[in-house]
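Narrative of activities, Objective 1.

The group set out to show that a structural description can be obtained from nothing but a protein's sequence at a throughput compatible with the screening campaign. Below is one input-output pair from the validation batch, recorded exactly as produced.
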Amino acid sequence: MLLSLCMIVKNEQDVLERCLESVKSAVDEIIVIDTGSTDRTKAIALSYQAQVYEYAWSNDFSAARNEGVKRAAGKWILVMDADEYFAAGDADKLRRFLETAEPSPHLIYSINVINFVGKSKEQAAITSGEIPRLFPNGYGIEYYRPIHEQLRSQSGELLSSLAPVSLFHTGYLEEMVNSKAKLDRNAGIFKELKNKQGFSAYDYYTLGNECAVGKDFQKAVYYYERAIKKQSKLINSSWFPHCVISLIHSYLVQNRMFDAWKLTEEKLSAWKDYPEYAFYKATILHHLGFMEEAEMTYVQTIETAASKSKESQVFWLESAEFASTIPMRKLSSIYEWQKKMVRGRSLFNQASHAGLIRLQRSESPAQNHDKIRYH
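Output recorded for this entry:
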């Protein structure tokens, strides 16, 4: 048996079929740990020949994950959430990849997870991150941490490589967050975690994310800053650049342009070869009205992404949109503004030659003459 899919679910009838339909061609068995569904979740899982096990929820995601992992019989284990799904063709691509991959007790695979964040999928912002989701079975690899769980090995340090597929995730859409009361549930788990052992830098980062999803950017800034301060000497952690970017974004939401610029130069500059560094500099310049500088830096963003794409299939830190779609849209707005400025100057010249400006000045109160602008 090549691949086991392990999931934990609760009341996922609206999204589970989409998930299982997208992955069914890749997996040999589906193991579902149900933590108390009262809707059609279990019936949908069973229709895909899943093994469904009821599990008493204990405010610990790792415990629930490990319950599924210990029941897996496949050579490899894939972990997914119900609100995730593969693009067409990626499940078959994953299986072909695993057919030749050699298991190692020290090597796991991350999958690029593309998140839709916002009111709806159509209006959402897109972010992404590489999350460990694929690992060999039987080597003592397990989950730890009660929330935002991570993998560890009894054999020592784990190395992560990138699998050649991506997952789409809709769990951050407002409707999903509100309907499942995720933020309230997670807040309770974080409270227990703090009482037991205190917060690590990673905990502060994930707390910042919780606040940002809830649009409480003041609290998000507080937690992101704590995370960066606590982790400042270990910037190679995979989550660290995402934390820096999230804090820059939170500063921008609060119009804290100086803080955003300072953080971009002091921290994000460590990843100059990714497009986000130039993108955020361009965004700040654009906001402050430095149009020519913003234009050049948006172009630099696109050029950086093009160069990085020759080295890696994932040529961005946070979102592919920062590499092309958004900077191109921003450039379009600058070019439109420039055309309007040229048109405005042309109209002014025409009016001046026709004597209209002289007429306007002669009819204006003398004390207002110094308020007339010609640019």
